[in-house]
User: What shape does this take?
Amino acid sequence: MDIKKIDWWRTSFGQEEISMLTKSMSEEHISQGPVTAEFEAQFAKAMNVPYAVATTSGSVALLMSLMAMGVKRGDEVIVSNRTFIATAHAPLMLGAKVVLVDVHRDVPVMDVSLIKKKITARTKAIMPVHLCGRAVDLAGIHRLAKAYGLCVIEDACQAMFSKNERGYLGTQSDVGCFSLGVTKLISSGQGGVVVTSNRRTYEELKLIRNHGVPGTFEATYPRLGFNFKFTDIQAAIGLAQLRRVKDRLLKLHSLYRKYEGNLKELDFPFLRLIPVNVNAGEVPLYIEALCQNRDSVRNYLNSRGIEVRPFLPNLNQSPHIKNGGSFPHSTEFSKHGFFLPSGPDQSDSNVDRVLNAMQSYVRRKKIGLF
Ligand SMILES: Cc1ncc(COP(=O)(O)O)c(C=O)c1O
Assistant: This one.
């Protein structure tokens, strides 16, 4: 029998994106120009923050932020051991050293109580990562940053429109970074945004995005930068996607609740959802689960046409980042974690199929078939 494959992530682009794109192109708005400015203005407004700077990716947003904060060769930057490697590559690109911190036992975000002993005279910045919309303890980080004179760059690439009690994640520190990659809440294909409340930082970011050059016709070269410019083509797609935010948030919440309710009922102690505090305003971008028999669950679901993505490795497993010390909680997550099919365009019937397959896995497991 030919079974229709279920992808681990589904998102959508439609007529609105095509119309915005066509309009932008027919008005000869192709490279970075007025459509980008409009996207930045709308993004900043939606995020309730004064300034937004769009760029080529979330990775570049992180790199530009570190450059704006003056991070340089020999500095140390504190990073969560559980994140996509982009968070560490940004400081490494500037010649800084990445100092890793383990995550909490129950949720894979930085355990802020572990940071203090990692701070040295060379520490320049902390990069909290709000993984899968989960808020890092920003109040704790800001206290440390104040005490030791450090800057804070929030990696909110997986946390667009996620909130804690003070408002949107990514907007509460020196700078915050978002990704517009395809597996994010909204997407422009590739893309990223840096937000800040500081006017000088905003001006620096705009310079960095354009090789440090302030004017177009009266160019001078006052500082280091690069071509990190966005395009109006991407911004047109981004503007159409911004209009979908409300519906997408509803959809991601409903998927999360559906998985949460059904997985609880499975009554299988070795398989559980990694919680997202949706009641506090966190956005469950992905459906993340833990299972002691991850590979066996994965093989079973794969055999039923369901794509399951295992968690990314920990940063301390990379030869070019290797840090001393142990990271017991990160190790558990990387060994046993996986993503179940989700995303704003994942159909309820697909999720029903996933849940049925998981029920069937558990039944078979209970009678010793695995
Ligand atoms: C936590 C985190 N940081 C940074 C990035 C990098 O974003 P981009 O892929 O847009 O460069 C990602 C992308 O997946 C991410 O998940």
